[in-house]
Every structure is written in structure tokens, then in C-alpha cells.
Amino acid sequence: MHLFYNPHIQGDSFKLEEQESKHAIRVLRLVRGDRVILVDGGGGWYEAVITEDHPKRCRLKIETEKQGYQALSYKLHLAVAPTKNLDRFEWFLEKATEIGISEITPLICKRSERRQIKIERLEKILVSAMKQSLKAYKPKLNEPMAMEEFLNTERPGTLGIAHCYPLKRLSVKDLDHSGNYTLMVGPEGDFTEEEVSLALQSGYAPFHLGSSRLRTETAAIYITNAISLHHL
Question: What's the average pLDDT block by block, 10 residues per block, for the chain (232 residues)?
Fold first, then answer.
């Protein structure tokens, strides 16, 4: 069945937004009586049937509802420096959503080559990836935040910073797998030594991702997948 998204699903009768209605009726050629799936991005999974097949106001009747559908058994918040080539950051968002991630903060660092991003465009990528991977949860995407501000915000669970300096570091598998993670990935030139020092003072454990030098988006996906595999 085809899957549609709306964050404001209430009651047992529901109308798709105009863009989704057009896609359902004009593109997918769905008609009255066809069954579809609705998700609200917050864990709600709804099976519904089309009761009005108008391309501007496709109306549905919800027949079954599940909450907490396929919820992650852990919480993963990644703070990642946006890449100079935004396509790479968008690729990370797409793949992390497919694998499983709770929250993402674009992190602005001293060596960041990109400091501005269009959140609205990135939200569309998250929605598309959620729908493609048949998930009911859309990761929370925060506004870009300076690293200093990020470190000054108290956060629960396992805190970690991935960096490449020749200091004593844990491997990602040796982190405290408490089930609640806030982990940081720096820009293409890595964090500065001062930034690493500030993170350590704020309680972030240093960790590495092996001996290879990874791109920012590759490192972020490496972490996302490693945490996911640990909690299978």
C-alpha cells in the first residue's frame, strides 16, 4: 500500500493536503475504495480507505491505528557539521532516517565551510526518507547551533565527540551504550583542538571510527549504523 504523511491526523475521517491529494489521484491513480497507509511522523501508523478521490481533496476513512509503530529501542541525537557540498549532508539525512535516528542538530564549528542551510528543504528530505523506508517516526531536525552553545546545553545519557587527534580515545563499540546518545561529528577539517578540549570539559567522551579518514557524512552514517546494530 502507498504511504502518505501528515503530522495532524485526528479523528476517523481525514483529508490529504492538496499536494498529497494530487499525487494520490493524478500520479498514483488511486480511486475510491483503495487502501493506503498514513503516518504522522510521531509513531502513528494508520490504515485507511479512500472515500473521496478528488485530486484537490482526497478524503480518507481511518480503519485501524497503531501508536509507537516500530519505535527505536534507543535515542540517538547526532550533532553534525553541515558539509560544504550540501548534497552530502542531505545524503546523510536520508540514510540516517532510513537506518534510524531520533534527532539531528546541524553543528556550526570554527572550521565549518557551510554555516547556513534551508531547514524547509531538509525537512522534505526527512519526510521522503521516512516514507520510502516505511517508518512512522520522522527525526527531529533542529536549527543550526554553534558548538559552544550546544556544549552549554545539558544533555542526558552517553555524550561523545568523534575526532582524529592522536589522543586516547574509545572505539565507538566501547562507548557507554546506555540507550540514550548525544554524539558529535565535526567538519571536513575536523574540530579544532580547542573545541575538543571544551567538549571533554563538558563531559563528552572522545571516540574514534577506526584508522581510516572518513568524510563527515560517512562518519555520521558509520555512527548511526553502529548504534543501530548494537541495539538489534
Answer: 91 89 95 96 97 94 96 98 95 98 97 90 97 97 97 95 92 92 96 96 96 94 97 91
**Do the bridges between strand 59-66 and strand 13-15 make them parallel or antiparallel, or are there none, so unpaired?**
antiparallel
Residue linked to cell 531538509: 122
How do 158-162 and 180-185 pair as beta strands?
parallel
CA distance 195 to 167: 14
- Residue 208 near residue 174, CB atoms below 8 Å: no
Give which of 11, 86, 6 is closest to 40, Cα–Cα: 6
CA-CA distance, 86 to 131, in Å (whole number)? Answer: 22
CATH number of the domain at 75-230, please?
Answer: 3.40.1280.10
Which residue type is seen at 35? Answer: R
Of the candidates 116, 102, 118, which has an alpha carbon nearest to the alpha carbon of residue 155? 102
Is residue 106 within 8 A of residue 212, CB to CB? The reply is no
For 117-143, give the DSSP string: --HHHHHHHHHHHHHHTT-SBPPEEPP
For the chain, the domains span: 3-66, 75-230
Type and span of the H or E element at 49: strand 45-52
The pTM of this model reads: 0.93
Count of CB atoms within 10 A of residue 44's CB? 19
Contacts of 102 (CB under 8 A, 6+ apart): 72, 75, 76, 77, 137, 139, 140
Q: How far apart are CA 159 and CA 176, in angstroms?
A: 9
What is 3-66's CATH topology?
Ribosomal Protein L25; Chain P (2.40.240)
